Structures are given as structure tokens and as C-alpha cells.
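Technical appendix A lists one of the benchmark inputs used to test multi-chain prediction within the project. The record comprises two sequence entries:
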Amino acid sequence: MMTLAEERIDRLTALAREATITGEYDRSREYVRLARRVSERNRCGLPRELKRFTCDDCDVYLRPGRNARVRLADGHVVVRCSCGATKRYPYD
Amino acid sequence: MALTPETLTRHELIGLHMCVADAPNPDLVGISGRIVSETMQTVVVETQGETKQVQKQDSTFEFCLPVESSGGQYRHTNTDEAAGDRKVPGSSSKLGSETAGEAEQKHPRQSAPSADASQNASAASLVGRDECEGGVYVTVDATTLLSRPAERTEFIGDSKWR
């Protein structure tokens, strides 16, 4: 059973993705920040998608090919936001 | 905990279609569109390419909830099957003046001009209602939404860890 907070975060994830697709990056930032705030208030964590494909520096939802580039390196994946911040996650 | 009329005030409002049924500023009455942002005291509605910021205090909003049995536009719509047939209290399937009238009766302090404005609002929303066909309309006293957007989900009360 999904809690209300988790469902809210899920919905915000979808909204942030759509905002990035339509080029409204500031809206996307707003939704990602709200989702993070909800998750910390309710101690429920974030979905993996939101952990990996949001920028830690500017909070925008990352869409590879649009505002992010993804490179495969030795042992990890590198996701670089168009603002220049880099995020890495391991293969698993 | 799906998005139902009961959980609406604690759920995410962004992305829903909304119509302003009553507001202290008569110019705001009748604004309808998709909610794109929310602050502690206001809601930002996108109508025909422009955004309008409506205050929550002393306003009445009419929300259109997507019907979840028809697949839904959102992924997580697994409702309680046993409770599915129950008639949902406090909501109507049509956007009408009767629901707006009920909301007005709750606020006897409102004067006759605002009642006129509300009639205009329901007329205006009837024009633009095709965007959420088959949805459930819920009329909410927006003063109950006065909270920081991220903290609306929580139950208010003392934590046992305090």
C-alpha cells in the first residue's frame, strides 16, 4: 500500500518529467524541490528515478539528450547536467 | 491512498484542473485551468497560456479529479476494490450550481453580489468543462488548503518521538 506522500512524490516525478520535456526547466525545478521536501518530511525516500535523474546542483529533472548527457565509464555511469554538475552511479 | 475527494486536501494539487467558484476578488471568480504551482497562500492556475495566481484565503475552488476506474492518466491508481462501489460522499459527477450553492450556504457572510458572481462562475466553467469530461467534481473551501505545500500531507499532531 502506497502512502499518500509516496504517491504525491510519484505524481511530482511525472510532472517534473513533463515540465522538462516541454522546456519549462524552472517548473521542473520547483516540482523536484517539492518532491524532495515531501520525502524528507515524511521520511519515505525518493524513487530511484528521481535520485539518479535530477541535478544535485540546480535541482532540474534530467532528460538524457535534452538537458543531460550520459557516459558510461569504468564501473559507473556519469550523468552530466547542462549546468555542468556531474552525478555518478554504479553499475549493479 | 489514492486521490479521492477525502484525501484531496492532503494530496498533490499540481496538475489537477480547477475552477474558482468563489473568491474575495470578483475578478478571480471563474478562472479555470490546470494548477501549475502552489504556495502557502495561493495557487497558480494556467489558463490559455497565461498563469493566474489565486489566493486560498476565503475562496472556494472546484477541482476536477480524474476518474480512476478508466485506467487513469497516472500510474498508481490501484484503489480498494471492495470500497469501489460505495457512493463517494461529498462529491458530484457534474459541475453544477447546486454544489456551488451548498458552498455558499456554508458562508452566510457572503453578500448577494458574490452570489451573482458565483453564478457567473458556474456558467463560465460550463463553457470550459470539456477538458475534464467524466471526472468527479469536488468543491473545496480553499481556506482548508492554507498550508505549506510540502506539509499538507502530514497529519497535524505531536510526534511520539518528541
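The two ends of chain A are 27 Å apart (CA to CA). The interface with chain B takes residues 1-5, 7-8, 10-12, 14-15, 27, 30-31, 34, 37-38, 41-42 of chain A (CB under 8 Å). Comparable benchmark entries are summarised in Table A2.
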